[in-house]
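Narrative summary of target 7.
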Amino acid sequence: MDVTVTGGEDAGKSRGRSLAGEIAKFGLVGGLGIVVNVAVFNLSRLLTPLSVFWCGFAGTGVAIVSNYAGFRHFVYRDRDKQRRAREFSLFVTFSLAGLVIENGTLYAAVHWLDWQSTWQSNLAKALGIAAATGFRFLTYRTWVFRPVRTAAPPGDAVTPYVRAPSAAGSRQPAARTAQPGGRQERRRKMPETTVTQALILAGGRATRMRPYTDDVPKAMVPVGGAPIVAYQLAWLAQHGVTHVTISGGYKHEVIRQYAGDGSRFGMDIRYAVESEPLGRGGGLKFAAGHLHAGDAPFFVLNGDVITAFPLTELSRFHTRSGATVTVALSPYRSDWGVVELEEDGHRIRGFSQSPELPYWINAGVYVFGPEAVGMLPDKGDHEDHTFPQLARDGRLFGYRLGGYWRGLDTVKDVLEASAEVPEAVGALPPVFHMAQPDA
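Modeled conformation, tokenized:
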């Protein structure tokens, strides 16, 4: 199972790169605006009888119009496109405030300092532009071109993905205190959407789980007396999911024999069987075509995780944030013991066995908006293509889950989970232990 590491220093670097990119784009548009501004200013002085003061206003006015087009369609093209009238009125308001700052500087230099020559007036103009540009940058990005959603506090936002080695044995204690997915400030009231359908990705061969997977797919490997998929179906049913699509490939008939049409679990179960390996992203896209409602959001579960946290909270977070895809995140626990050193960097103070590290991993549980399906590859991995693009566009969010989470990759994981799961998740209803009788 591949994990995605996010948070800590990487998150800070990502935010820094994002801000640097924004400043560079802002500077490019602003620079072109300055060229327009200064050109109109000087042409007005040469070709019209207007005073220096009014020539400054003319240059700034023309630059405001050209700047709006550049900021809206280049710098902030991915930001909220609703309420354009409000956006433009605020843009003009703050631009005029910048004009006052800019030309106030020019007026003071010309009338108070007697800067009358061409080079002096242009110097005064440049000083005014510098002050006004800083004011505009802060106001445009904060009040004018509003994000579709407000960024989550540090640790919640998903940063561009860094693929880490497989996290065998990644686990979280059952007694963990629940951590909210993060506070989101809503720009407008959004309807609460209850997600009632889910897609389980259960098509992998899981060679690292042999001999468990010699005769059954990974999702049917028994853990604590029930297959992995049983815990997932019971969890989904507990949180109101009524329609499930299982994406299968290797030994898919074993899952179908166990789960049937889902009626005994109180849900409708469909199957999307790949005729050839499509990869996780391709398989997800193919299976999405078999959902009960193709125009509604849906949960996605990797077929190798067992977890217990409130799915309704994840659904609510996804709706309120306005994300295209929301990724459930779990704290990263080291597979090795860590040596604790004194400040001198040499004397050993102690040891910490498998500590939690200040990073977050992809927990293999998602909420997908229907608009995300078209972005998935026909073949390949969504974490190589789709997720990085969504992250760059600011449409990929992370929800920090609390409670038990366990990824199962190896035989060791199965043995450890078998000891943990009964207490961490609780006993499954008897119906989920029963095998589907042959027809």
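Residues 1-11, 149-192 have pLDDT under 50 and may be disordered.
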